[in-house]
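STRUCTURE:
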C-alpha cells in the first residue's frame, strides 16, 4: 500500500496504513470496515438497480421544504449555510436525492417480506396503555390495592404515593409494547382485561401496581410500525450481503 499521506495532523503526515493500524489498536477497525462496506453496498445497489424511481419534483419540493423549515429562503442565507457545511448546491441536491433513493431501496427490498414478517412480529408489537403506582414496600403496595378495590381512585393514590416520575400524570405510563414488558408483567397483562389491577409485583427492589387502561392491537397500517419493520428487514438484507461476500483487507 502506498505511503502517500492519507491526512495530515498539523505538519505530520499520516498514511492510510498508519490510520488503519491506529484504528486496529483502538479496537475500532472492524466497525470502520463494516461502515465502509455498508456504504459501498448501498451505493452499488442504488446505482445498479433500475426499479428505484424517484421523481425529480419530489427532490425539489424536499429542498424547498428544508429551506422553509430552516429559514433559508433567502439565497444569500442559503449559500452561507452551504458554505458552513462545506458543500455546494450540487452536493446538497445529490444528498437529498440519495435519501429518497435509499428509502425506495429499503421499500423495494422489504416489500415482498413485509406482510409475513409483520405476522411473525405482531404479538410483540401489540401495545397496551398502562398506569402504575411504584412504592418501596410490599405492605404499602398491598394496602394501596385494598384501597383501590374499596373505591379509592387509582389516580389519587398514584399522585400521593408513587415514586415514579409519571405520578405527575396520575400514574399514566402511556402505550407500552408487549415486547418491552418484563416477562412477569407481560404474562399478567395477557390474562387481564381493561380496568383490571395487576400486582403488587416486585421490580428492581420496588413494588408495583398496574392498571390496564386499553389494549391496542398492532396494525401494518400504522406508519411507524411499517417503517420500523421495513428498517429491520433492510438491516437483515445488509447483514446477509456482508456475511455472504468474502472480505479481505489488503494492508
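SEQUENCE:
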Amino acid at each position: 500500500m502506498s505511503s502517500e499521506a492519507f491526512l495530515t495532523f498539523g505538519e505530520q503526515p499520516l498514511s492510510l496504513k498508519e490510520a488503519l493500524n491506529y484504528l486496529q489498536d483502538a479496537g475500532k477497525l472492524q466497525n470502520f470496515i463494516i461502515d465502509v462496506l455498508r456504504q459501498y453496498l448501498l451505493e452499488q445497489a442504488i446505482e445498479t438497480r433500475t426499479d428505484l424511481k424517484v421523481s425529480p419534483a419530489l427532490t425539489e419540493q424536499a429542498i424547498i421544504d428544508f429551506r422553509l423549515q430552516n429559514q433559508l429562503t433567502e439565497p444569500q442565507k442559503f449559500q452561507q449555510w452551504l458554505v458552513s457545511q462545506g458543500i455546494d448546491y450540487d452536493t446538497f441536491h445529490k444528498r437529498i436525492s440519495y435519501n429518497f433513493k435509499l428509502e425506495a431501496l429499503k421499500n423495494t427490498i422489504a416489500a415482498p417480506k413485509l406482510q409475513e414478517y409483520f405476522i411473525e412480529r405482531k404479538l410483540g408489537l401489540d401495545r397496551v396503555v398502562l398506569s402504575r403506582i411504584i412504592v418501596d414496600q410490599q405492605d404499602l403496595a398491598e394496602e394501596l390495592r385494598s384501597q383501590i378495590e374499596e373505591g379509592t381512585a387509582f389516580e389519587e393514590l398514584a399522585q400521593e404515593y408513587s415514586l415514579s416520575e409519571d405520578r405527575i400524570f396520575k400514574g399514566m405510563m402511556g402505550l407500552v409494547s408487549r415486547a418491552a414488558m418484563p416477562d412477569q408483567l407481560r404474562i399478567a397483562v395477557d390474562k387481564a382485561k381493561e380496568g383490571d389491577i395487576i400486582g403488587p409485583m416486585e421490580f428492581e427492589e420496588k413494588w408495583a401496581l398496574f392498571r390496564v387502561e386499553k389494549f391496542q392491537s398492532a396494525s401494518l397500517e400504522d406508519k411507524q410500525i411499517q417503517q420500523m419493520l421495513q428498517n429491520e428487514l433492510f438491516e437483515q438484507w445488509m447483514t446477509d450481503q456482508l456475511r455472504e461476500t468474502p472480505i479481505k483487507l489488503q494492508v
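REMARK: The chain has a mean pLDDT of 92.
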